[in-house]
Amino acid sequence: MEDAQYFYHPLENIEDVEIFEEAVERKKLTPALSAERPYTYWTLELYDQENGIRGGGGLGVLAADTRRVAEQMGVPFTLVTPFYPSETHQVIRDGKMYDDHVRVGYANFGYRYVDTVNIKCADTICHLDVIEKVFENTRILCVTEPNFGELYSGLSGSDHRLYQEVSLGFGGYQALKLLGLKPAIIQLNEVATFFAALARLDELASNGMDFYEAVVYTRKHTLYTNHTLVQAAEAEFSYDQFERFVFPNLKSAAVRKWISDKFTDGRLRLSSVTIEIAELRSGVSKLHARVANYHDIAGNKVKFKAITNGIDMEKWVMPDVMAFYRKSGVVDEIGLPSAGYEDQLEALSAGKIRALKSTGRQILNQVLSTRPDQNGKILQFKDDDFIFDFKRRFVNYKRPELPFRNTAKLREILEPRGAHYIIAGRVHAGDSVMLKKLHDLLWAVSRDPYLKTHVHYLADYDERLAYGLSCGSNVAINVPIVGLEACGTSWMKDVTNLNLLISTHDGGVADVSAENYLNVHGANESEELSELYHRMEEAISAWDNDFDLEFLIRKQLVAFLPVISGARMLQDYLEYLFPPRT
Ligand SMILES: *Cc1c(COP(=O)(O)O)cnc(C)c1O
Description:
Blueprint (H helix, E strand, L loop, with lengths): L13 H12 L13 E5 L14 H16 L3 E6 L3 E8 L2 E8 L8 E10 L2 E11 L3 E7 L14 H20 L6 E5 L4 H13 L4 H10 L1 E5 L9 E3 H7 L7 H8 L6 E3 H8 L2 E4 L2 H6 L13 E2 L6 H4 L2 H9 L13 H4 L5 H19 L18 E5 L15 H8 L5 E5 L7 H16 L3 H4 E4 L4 H10 L2 E4 L11 H7 L3 E5 L13 E3 L4 H19 L2 H19 L1 H12 L5
The protein binds pyridoxal-5'-phosphate.
The site of pyridoxal-5'-phosphate has 13 residues, from α2, α17 and α18.
């Protein structure tokens, strides 16, 4: 029972909850969460290029932003993630896309080597280096080794993926202990991080705590954040794989039995055990939390608490716009919309918007100076050039090629204004369907004399491009098939950086009503497409009219700023984890 005291139980300790709430308001360190007892956040993917780790998409960006917001709010926070020694970069040669693999060294990014821990896998001992990068009240804690591989390398049910997940869970848990840290909370950013909670359960159960008590303790301190809509879409592992990679790392026979019992026909989906081990469960937007279709082992539908993703405004909002938000009292010092922010936004005139966007265009030009388009051309835009952008992973449900279904119509919209259309987004390794769609799109564009010089594809989409485009474009296009986007955060970068948003009503966009942005809807895809074209025309004319521009940009901000604020998101998490006494 001795270890139990380490596992602070915030939900029952009313006194500490009170101190904690007060402290959140004062944005100070708290006794409930302390330097030795931090909020721990586990993720297989982190998108934080400044700190040497490149992710795949929104899941990783969210993780990086959550830590940054915790830093600003003074919340003690440890993010545990792998450091991948290799990453892919997308290159275009002769109009075709290829992947280049690049080695990455952690020493170049200010990480400190801590020690080496061991885990057991497939009859051998695997050595994992523990490295850390410490900020003021947060840290990035990583496990790594030279053959760790790349993010999402191999199939999702493969041995190598299980090895990576087990390394993060068991290796990362040992890393915490090496540093003398005890997790106040374990947040699992998707089920691939399940093994962190399992490592904790195993430690409690093997240190003499009653097994069921250990389960209760672990459940009360574990938050599972779901980003996936359909449980059936998730990969499964076999019992044989667990015998090789998981069981050798367990000390407690009871834990081993507990997990063995969860297999059906020799197979296991991590979500089913993650649901069992985490009493706290969240989805990443209101719509997503409602429609995510998950069942526990008993067959009951799982309820997810809606905590919509936010972004770190400090990182994503261009400095001049952030200065405006601050100076006019739209947001407070940690990036929360202030009381009455709606009225403060009255100061955002069309003239102000245009001046700020002119600065944004310089930022975009700076980013583009090293990022040629598909024809090898370096693009530079003037203030009065008009830019639509589509920047997000090139995956089917996001429908990157939707506006290109009718290239004649697209030209008809763009040409009178001399408008450009920029696409940035990587195709997943191995997604041959989308790779073909991209090649077909580029080919169709190259056949049209106008589109050829005004539609640009920028390879190797990353944070820099995401930032540059959100600062420098006029209109962002976001048209996922309704029901399939969990949240999405790139549209948040656009709204805060004063772009008009054309979007389907999905993900976090659907947290507010559809009249707050240029909504695309329709009974079928062809209706949606004509609505999209219509909205593009409307966006062009709005930018040519001061009254419309002011009206639409302010309306977007009024509706979305509270959603977008990363500080709001972290506060929502803290309130869910440490519910205020009523
Ligand atoms: C913001 C961002 C994302 C998030 O994209 P969504 O499709 O909106 O979830 C993905 N990749 C990069 C590089 C980003 O900057």
